[in-house]
Write a sequence for this structure.
C-alpha cells in the first residue's frame, strides 16, 4: 500500500513543540517524504521534505528514522495559527504525490 | 503570477450531466495533477500529467477524463456526473523533480 499512516488528531499547547508522527513502512528507496498542511478548506501548502537525512527550514523540522519506515514533523513553537490538518505524503519524482489521511492538529492557548 | 487558477469555484450538476473543471498555471511547471477531497478521506489523486500530451491515472480515475494539450492547462472532464462525484476538487502543479506542489483554491462540485 502506497499510503502513509497518521493519527487522526492531536492537541498541542501554544508555545510548545508539536510532534506529528507518520508511518511509511513500505516506502521505496527512491521515494521522498513530503509534508503539507491544509488550513480550513484552502489548498494544501508545502512544508518540508526529505529522503534520508533530517531536514530543517524556517517552518519546521523533519526527522526520518534510519530505516526510513517512519518520520516526525516538528513544529518547534506551535502557535494558534498552526491549527490545521497536516498530511504526510510520498513522492517518487514520477509525478505521483500520494497523501495519507492527515492529522488534525489543534493548538490550544 | 497568479499561480494555479481553477474555475468554476462552485458548481451544481444533475446526475448524468457533463462538465469540465478548468485548471491553468502560469509558473511553467511541467507536471500537473487533479485531486479530490471528501470528508475523512484526505486527498486522493485522480489523474496527473508529466508534460503536454502525457497523462496517467492516479488512485481514483474512474469517471474522469483529462488531456494536456498545453503546458499551462489541464482540464478535468466529467462525462456523466454521479452523486458519488460530489466533492472538492483541487488542481496542482509542480516542477518535475520536486514534489513541492502548488495548489489552486479548489472547486466545490455537488451532483444531485
Amino acid at each position: 500500500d502506497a499510503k502513509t499512516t497518521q493519527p487522526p488528531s492531536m492537541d498541542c499547547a501554544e508555545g510548545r513543540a508539536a510532534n506529528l508522527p507518520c508511518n511509511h513502512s513500505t516506502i521505496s528507496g527512491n521515494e521522498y517524504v513530503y509534508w503539507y498542511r491544509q488550513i480550513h478548506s484552502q489548498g494544501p501548502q508545502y512544508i518540508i521534505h526529505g529522503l534520508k537525512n533530517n531536514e530543517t527550514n524556517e517552518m519546521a523540522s523533519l526527522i526520518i528514522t534510519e530505516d526510513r519506515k517512519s518520520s516526525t514533523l516538528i513544529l518547534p513553537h506551535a502557535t494558534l495559527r498552526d491549527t490545521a490538518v497536516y498530511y504526510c505524503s510520498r513522492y517518487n519524482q514520477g509525478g505521483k504525490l500520494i497523501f495519507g489521511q492527515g492529522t488534525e492538529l489543534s493548538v490550544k492557548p | 503570477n497568479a499561480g494555479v487558477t481553477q474555475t468554476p469555484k462552485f458548481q451544481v450538476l444533475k446526475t448524468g450531466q457533463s462538465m469540465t473543471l478548468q485548471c491553468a498555471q502560469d509558473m511553467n511547471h511541467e507536471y500537473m495533477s487533479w485531486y479530490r477531497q471528501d470528508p475523512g478521506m484526505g486527498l486522493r489523486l485522480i489523474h496527473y500529467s508529466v508534460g503536454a500530451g502525457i497523462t496517467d491515472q492516479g488512485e481514483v480515475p474512474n469517471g474522469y477524463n483529462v488531456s494536456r494539450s498545453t503546458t499551462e492547462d489541464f482540464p478535468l472532464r466529467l462525462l456523466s456526473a454521479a452523486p458519488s462525484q460530489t466533492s472538492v476538487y483541487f488542481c496542482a502543479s509542480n516542477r518535475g523533480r520536486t514534489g513541492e506542489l502548488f495548489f489552486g483554491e479548489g472547486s466545490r462540485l455537488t451532483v444531485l
Remarks:
- The beta strands of chain A are 9-13, 18-23, 32-38, 45-50, 55-56, 61-64, 70-75, 84-91, 97-99, 103-108.
- The interface with chain B takes residues 32, 34, 36, 41-46, 49, 87, 89, 91, 93-102 of chain A (CB under 8 Å).
- Residues 54 and 63 of chain A are 5 Å apart (CA to CA).
- Chain A is about 0% helix and 50% strand.
